[in-house]
Amino acid sequence: MTVDSSNLEAPPTRVLGLDVGDRRIGIAISDELRTIAQPVATLTRTSRRYDLRYFDRLLRLRPFAEIVVGLPLYPSGDRSPQAAKAEAFATQLGEHLGLPIHMWDERLSTSEAHRYLDATVRPGTTRKQVIDQVAAVLILENWLTAQTNEKGRQQAGLS
């Protein structure tokens, strides 16, 4: 007996990237090869329940296998008060969706996002419309690059 594999769905391989703030969450997603990150949306937060339902819908529409959440640290590397909030949300989201969560140092992502927008944003576009998405893309891209580099080191026998 042969199995028609054209009807079988491959498990999702995309990774979601989040820049979690008190008022907004910037959202980015990788391609299936985990090489490119692209902006998805900026979620304006209203309640924890609403936030979780939003990610339920997003998971159905654009399946992903893992989530990377920016961890806001001070330049010294010490944890900021916002770090505990981001970790609490990440833990709850991971448990709610049943997916692995990775916390990633986001110290430079917001300032890098502002520099990027200074160089590329068109007149008439407000930063609030895109800054959180750009930060989420940068967080995700940095994590994806680190994963690729680690895999290369392992394959070369350097880790």
Index terms:
alpha/beta, 4 helices, single chain, 45% helix, 5-stranded mixed β-sheet, Nucleotidyltransferase, domain 5, globular, 159 residues, 20% strand
Q: Quick one: biggest sheet?
A: 5 strands, mixed
Helix content: 40-55%
The separation of the N and C termini measures 44 Å
Order of helices and strands: EEEHEHEHH
Structural class, judged by helices and strands? alpha/beta
Question: Segments where pLDDT lies below 50 for 5+ residues?
Answer: none
CATH fold-level topology: Nucleotidyltransferase, domain 5
Average per-residue pLDDT, rounded, comes to 86
Q: Give the count of helical stretches.
A: 4
Strand order of the largest sheet: 3-2-1-4-5
Q: Strand tally, please?
A: 5
Computed over alpha carbons, the radius of gyration is 17 Å
Number of domains: 1
How much beta, percentage-wise? 15-25%
Shape: globular
CATH architecture: 2-Layer Sandwich
Q: Name the CATH superfamily assignment.
A: YqgF/RNase H-like domain
Under CATH at level 1, the class stands as: Alpha Beta
